[in-house]
UniProtKB/TrEMBL annotation:
Residues 37-56 are annotated as: Disordered. Residues 1-117 form the B30.2/SPRY domain. InterPro entries: B30.2/SPRY, B30.2/SPRY_sf, ConA-like_dom_sf, Gid1/RanBPM/SPLA_SPRY, SPRY_dom. It comes from the Eukaryota. SUPFAM superfamilies: Concanavalin A-like lectins/glucanases (SSF49899). SMART domains: SPRY. This is B30.2/SPRY domain-containing protein.
Length: 124
């Protein structure tokens, strides 16, 4: 990740039919977000935890444990404290990943395949 202002970078998942592609997506209904300033938010409401900021060189991950319907974030392979319970969503919601960047020169690299930094075996 290379960002001009990491505090305005947001990574998360959104319910496809409820989320417009303009503006600060983390502040929208139907989103689950981790912001560069360390805040986690859902449905546009902050969780108020700014202890784990991310920025240049960090790896941020998103996971869903289907057994307990919890969504969680990771930073550099370590699971974050906050989880989102997906009880209010349909059993198979149409979620899609999103990244909000501030400037046109900001860059991220996405990995939707193997070689995750987070050890998935810890969920078993």
């Amino acid at each position: 990740m290379r960002c001009s202002d990491h505090r305005l970078t947001t990574i998360g998942l959104a319910i496809k039919h409820q989320t417009p592609l303009a503006g600060r997506i983390a502040k929208r209904r139907g989103t689950f977000a981790y912001e560069g300033d360390g805040d986690c938010a859902t449905e546009g409401r902050s969780r108020g935890n700014r202890r784990r900021q991310f920025g240049d060189g960090d790896t941020v991950g998103i996971g869903i444990n289907l057994a307990n319907r919890q969504l969680f974030f990771t930073k550099n392979g370590q699971r974050m404290d906050h989880t989102f319970v997906l009880d209010s969503l349909p059993s198979d919601p149409p979620l899609f990943p999103f990244v909000s960047l501030r400037d046109s020169g900001d860059k991220i690299e996405a990995n939707f395949g193997p070689n995750f930094k987070f050890d998935l075996a810890t969920l078993l």
